Amino acid sequence: MDAKKRLQNVLTNIRSAEKQAGRPENDVALLAVSKTWPADVVKTLAEAGQRDFGENYLQEALTKIDLLGNENLIWHFIGPIQSNKTQDIAHHFDWVHSVDRLKIIQRLSQQRPDALPPLNVCLQVNIDQEPQKSGVTPEALPALADAVIKLPKVALRGLMVIPKVTPDESEQRRTFARTYQLYQSLQSRFKSIDTLSMGMSADMTIAIAEGSNLVRVGTALFGERHTQQTP
Ligand SMILES: *Cc1c(COP(=O)(O)O)cnc(C)c1O
């Protein structure tokens, strides 16, 4: 199956998940996670109408952004961020989903060029409080949001979550539901909050049922990843 076919299938699945959940059509957007896949594959999906792409590895992403500069795409950084990467992210991306530390977000705001609109930010939440995982704890989230909302060159848009891997569907459901509650309470405090980045290839239907409005999908669109990173 080619990439365009897979895109149609994923979009069909999203529309039917919306319907099943009683949500309005087109309530849920698709972020195509193109990590490890070359620029020409991204271009194929862009030609089929896909606009938003997610990348985890900075150098790989910068190469693709450069090659596809004319395609008018929206680039989301969704991988781990160290301080030495903030400059390039602030200059070349439209969104960041994987931030949980004020220091990093302050740097992104400082380094965002004046000519560009504010960088859109989803705070990553460590919803299962897993010690090895990134993300702000639910307890620390309100204070972090209070600080981020004041920064001039970032726009706080919502939350991102990567839940604990479990085969237990009801546990997945509860975890997504708890994230949705955090999202709603943030939304009641700040007008700019409109994005809940939740769900991947394997669990997007459940995530949509529990309130996600942006699913990050790699494997179901591009196939299995064979390498961790392109050379
Ligand atoms: C790789 C990745 C995805 C996509 O996962 P698939 O299972 O391939 O759909 C989504 N979100 C993040 C943060 C990722 O790193």
Automatic annotation (TrEMBL):
Function: Pyridoxal 5'-phosphate (PLP)-binding protein, which is involved in PLP homeostasis.
Xref: PANTHER family: PROLINE SYNTHETASE CO-TRANSCRIBED BACTERIAL HOMOLOG PROTEIN, PYRIDOXAL PHOSPHATE HOMEOSTASIS PROTEIN
Membership in a protein family: Belongs to the pyridoxal phosphate-binding protein YggS/PROSC family.
Keywords of this entry: Pyridoxal phosphate
InterPro entries: Ala_racemase_N (IPR001608), PLP-binding_barrel (IPR029066), PyrdxlP_homeostasis (IPR011078)
Protein name (Swiss-Prot/TrEMBL): Pyridoxal phosphate homeostasis protein
Residues with N6-(pyridoxal phosphate)lysine modification: 35
Pfam families: Ala_racemase_N
